[in-house]
Each structure stands twice: as structure tokens, then as C-alpha cells.
Amino acid sequence: MQVKAAFVTNQRCYGSRRIVDELKAQHIVMGRYKVRRLMREAGLKSVWKKKFVNTTDIKHALPVAENLLNRQFNPPESNQVWTSDITYFRTKTGWLYLAAVMGLYLRKIIGWTMSLTMPAALVCQALQMAIGQRQTMVGLILNSDRDSQYGSHEYQALLKQHGIICSL
Fold first, then answer.
1. Suppose 10 and one of 14, 26, 79, 145 were both cysteines; which one would form an S-S bond, judging by CB atoms 3.0 to 4.6 Å apart?
2. Under 8 Å CB-to-CB from 147, ≥6 apart: which residues?
3. What pTM, to 2 d.p., does this model score?
């Protein structure tokens, strides 16, 4: 049954209208009401995919650093202030998370990494890439949000190892 094949191929999220379009692309002409009836008879009900993922976990027991940057986003020299954050993208296979480190002076991404999950290693790898790209100066401030990944022992140890001051 072509309707069921199109439904399964598209992660069970297509309704009758999108199935009709999918079938047209395969040169199969079938009306929407017929597709809807066939879907109902086969027990095919589309499932809505979640459109938003909460990446911020501020309710953690990890230590929280002071906000040293205090919204001063224009440092006078390069490599004085970096900032970091996590974002996400929906793909056909699920969510993909991106952690990035940006140098605020040049407004340039200097470290990044992607993963299917959001462990502390995600932000650590992005920071390690940034450290490899740029010379870290003593007193460099790295500002991020209060996610549990940024408060993790692994991340804090990496900051301490390179003399980077944490600002959340």
C-alpha cells in the first residue's frame, strides 16, 4: 500500500494532505479524501513532532559563577572576552545540538561542536577548539548562561586549567 509506505517513510508525521503531495511526486494520483479514508482504515494517525527543545537547565545543584560581563559586549581588545552557548536544530533523524564559542571582539565563532545529546563534553569540546584556535590570556573571561553543562566539574576544570575566568 503506497499510502502506508509514504506515511512510514516520513516518520509517521504526515497527514492526508502531505501524503497526497508525496504520492504526486511519485506519479501516483489519489484524492485527499481517499487517502484520508485509507489512512483511517489502516489505523495510520499522524504524530506531531515537538518543535521546541528546552536546552537550559538552571535548576541544578552545581556552583554558579558571578556575572562578570554585566552586559558589556564590546571588549577593547581581542581575546579578553569570549561567550558560549548551546542551540539546536531539528533534522529528519531528530534533534542536533550545537555548542559554540565566540570571541566578542571580532564577533567570530572560534570553537564549535555538534552532538545528538547535550552532555558536558559538548561544551568542553567547543571550548577546547577555541583554545586551540586562539591564544588564551590570563584573565580571559568566558561568559555563558547557567546551563548545567557550563557548571559541570569537567567544564570548570578545563577553565581552571587554562586560567579562564568563568562568568555565568
1. 14
2. 55, 56, 57, 58, 86, 123
3. 0.60
